[in-house]
Amino acid sequence: MTLHLEKVSFTYDHNPIVSNFSITVEKGEFVSLIGKSGSGKSTILKLIAGLLQPKTGQILMDTAIPSPGSFGYMPQQNLLLPWRTVLENLMLHSEIQKGNNYTKEDVREWLRKTGLAEWENALPKQLSGGMKQRIAFLRTILTGSEVLLLDEPFGALDAFTKRDMQKWLLSIWQELDKTILFITHDLEEAILLSDRILIIHPQQGVEELKVDLPRPREAGMIYTAEMVKYRQELERRITDGLD
Ligand SMILES: Nc1ncnc2c1ncn2[C@@H]1O[C@H](COP(=O)(O)OP(=O)(O)OP(=O)(O)O)[C@@H](O)[C@H]1O
Q: Are strands 179-183 and 30-34 parallel, antiparallel or unpaired?
């Protein structure tokens, strides 16, 4: 299904944060949102997730109002419950989300597939930052939603862990056939992961850059001349704003 945001606007305390914002995201696309701090990226994801209501405009899946289960939202903080093991954290949606029943065995299968089986009984405090983000991402997948909304999932990780996570995420996404909207401040990350990058200009709108690099993407691509060209183009567009 195709996600449409049509002339969506939102204000906090009468301050316009998102103005007349329109985008279309096709099923299975990987789309990144970048823009200066405070440009409204997190607000846009929260509007799509249904955590905030647009003041005007509408959000549609094809032509219908999305159902509550359409989106899996991963906020900036991973929000794993500290008293629950990895397995118990991953069972959460099966326990609380009507119509989304999966078993512990299903979760174990996911943990095996994603190389995390040995962490099943660990508590969040025993996990590294990267490992916590992997579990939080798995939990987002287990919502069963077609569209995953990921708010800067790797922002707090060191460069090496980040590289591992990007590879891991791409390998899972290639299997999944899910749509991903991904916020990042890291231009290389946006280019390496995305089919398209949306550059958010506060109050002015959105620009788009299509990334025509072949898939599967390899980490080594960040050293290519093409990557440098995309990077320069992005930097220019973020800094210049819209005419
Ligand atoms: N709960 C809130 N109440 C009032 N203003 C808010 C609230 N949350 C965010 N804002 C304001 O809305 C604007 C957009 O915030 P948002 O978090 O969407 O930006 P962002 O582009 O995701 O920023 P960053 O890249 O720093 O995460 C900012 O000016 C912020 O101060």
A: parallel
